[in-house]
Design brief:
Blueprint (H helix, E strand, L loop, with lengths): L2 H38 L7 H14 L12 H12 L1
Helix pairs in contact: 1-2, 1-3
């Protein structure tokens, strides 16, 4: 394999890694928005789905160049809901 092919393969791998990160990030963001909407409506909510997505993101990040994410607490969701209502 020549240098050009090696660079192309490396770039493709990085791009695929980042594309998967974006998919996982979108799942996490959707779960966050759902929890905020439930909280804003005064309904019960859970952060389990959010943190499961966070765990998948963090496992994925160990194998590439994508960032990690912190786990979300119920207080964080309540704070975000309060900010959204103001």
């Amino acid at each position: 394999m020549n240098v050009h092919e090696a660079i192309t393969n490396h770039t493709r791998k990085q791009n695929a890694h980042l594309e998967r990160f974006l998919e996982l990030e979108n799942e996490r963001e959707a779960a966050i928005e759902e929890a905020i909407a439930l909280c804003s409506a005064g309904e019960s909510f859970s952060v389990d789905t959010i943190n499961a997505a966070t765990d998948r993101i963090n496992r994925h990040a160990r194998n590439g160049i994508s960032p990690t994410r912190v786990h979300v607490t119920p207080d964080m969701v309540r704070e975000a809901a309060d900010k959204k209502m103001k």
